[in-house]
Design brief:
The chain is 46% helix and 15% strand. It has twelve helices and ten strands. The protein has helices spanning 7-23, 26-33, 40-53, 71-83, 91-104, 107-119, 233-244, 251-267, 279-307, 314-338, 364-373, 384-396; strands spanning 124-127, 143-147, 150-158, 168-174, 185-191, 197-203, 209-222, 226-227, 269-270, 273-274.
Length: 398
């Protein structure tokens, strides 16, 4: 199998690099590089920039506004964006709900919701996890009871990322309790402004308000907002998760983090010598770089196989496990390189416009925040423990 890019793919890569260099504001790339907080306006600006370029909905068919890219082009774009410290695209509307609507939505739903996703008129969040249903999504208890032309929704969702900004949420709800768990779930679109919807913040270890709890109390949702068939939402849920796990290995993010870590190790002194020369630190740095190079090869093999018509199997789970472990190790080494400066950090130092003198190296302010935030990588999108079970079933038949 040839794992190198074709001349056409190399030309596309150069086009993406030119776009990122010419169009992405330096203010945004600096915030991403330095671990600063990205506000709603920053994320909306990136969304609009990609939409104007026609590159926002990379997974959508051209007839619905997608660029018509193949698997390799999608990988190249995501990888180059990470290397250039471009903001991440908020995935819930574009990368997750959009493909579900295209495959399972009716024509009226496609005509209404897809243009609003592209324009940014709607900011979507995901209502999957519940306090008693995380990796085991079939255990969801949030109920939706049919009442005329509406469903009445009651229950709770948790870990709702950026729900404080959203005006819409797509939810898995229980519409039948008398059948097998997977057979009684429906996929529902809910307006967050509906009476009875209550969003409460969850402040994480790094001091961030990134996730939320969402409570539903007698919330009326039009039946027209049901995607697919009633009690057949599990099919939509599984299909959406294939898109949530897209690029979850994060090769580009790891490449960028490794390059930054090498710069830090070269300029940080320990006993009068660069940290990069410390035998123990150098050994861990070398190990994570070797692991990353191995994963990149495996990732390219999967991408080329899919481009040739293949379907990834256990390889997706392998990449998820190794990719998240590598990203966690890189943030752990970055925090270690900062030494005592990484222990306390001033929350305001991560905000744009903070102009007080830095305490220690400039990278110290975000080192702990990124380390703690990346603990979630091995949990979301299907925990690594669940992925190991998938691998054992698919390869060993256990």
């Amino acid at each position: 199998m040839d794992l190198s890019f074709t001349p056409e793919e190399q030309a596309f890569r150069a086009e993406v690099q030119r776009f990122l260099a010419d169009k992405v504001p330096a203010r945004l790339t600096a915030k991403v590089r330095d671990g600063k907080h990205l506000g709603k306006a920053d994320l909306q600006a990136w969304h609009a920039l990609l939409n104007d370029q026609g590159w926002l909905a990379s997974h959508w068919p051209e007839q619905y506004g997608g660029p018509g890219w193949n698997t390799v082009q999608k990988f190249i774009f995501d990888h180059e964006c990470a290397l250039a410290y471009a903001p991440r695209t908020i995935p819930f509307g574009v990368n997750m709900l959009g493909p579900v609507l295209i495959k399972y939505g009716n024509e009226a739903q496609k005509q209404h919701w897809l243009p609003r996703i592209l324009s940014g008129a709607d900011w979507w969040c995901q209502g999957y996890s519940e306090p008693g249903a995380g990796s085991d999504l079939a255990s969801v208890k949030t109920s939706a009871v049919r009442s005329g032309d509406h469903y009445i929704v009651n229950g709770q969702k948790t870990w709702t990322t950026l729900g404080q900004h959203a005006n819409m949420i797509f939810c898995l709800v229980r519409t039948d309790r008398d059948v097998k768990p997977q057979e009684g779930i429906s996929f529902l679109l809910i307006d967050m402004a509906t009476p009875g919807v209550d969003v409460r913040p969850i402040i994480t270890l790094d001091g961030e308000h990134e996730v939320n709890e969402v409570f539903f109390t007698d919330v009326k949702v039009p039946v027209d907002n049901l995607v697919g068939q009633e009690n057949r939402g599990w099919t939509c849920a599984k299909y959406l998760l294939t898109y949530e796990r897209t690029n979850i290995a994060g090769v580009g993010f790891s490449d960028a983090a490794l390059a930054r870590l090498k710069v830090i190790a070269a300029k940080t002194l320990k006993n009068g010598q660069p940290l990069a020369r410390d035998p123990l630190f150098a050994a861990r740095l070398a190990r994570v770089e070797i692991d990353l190079e191995n994963m990149k090869t495996t990732n390219m093999r999967v991408i080329m196989a899919v481009a040739g018509g293949g379907v990834p199997g256990a390889e997706s789970s392998m990449l998820k496990i190794r990719g998240t472990e590598i990203r966690q190790e890189l943030t752990a080494l970055t925090r270690r390189a900062m030494g005592p400066y990484a222990l306390p950090f001033i929350q305001e130092a991560l905000e744009e416009g903070y102009d007080q003198p830095a305490v220690g190296p400039e990278e110290a302010a975000s080192a702990s925040a990124q380390y703690f935030n990346n603990r979630k990588l091995s949990i979301f999108g299907g925990s690594n423990e669940i992925q190991k079970n998938i691998i054992s079933k698919m390869i060993l038949g256990l």
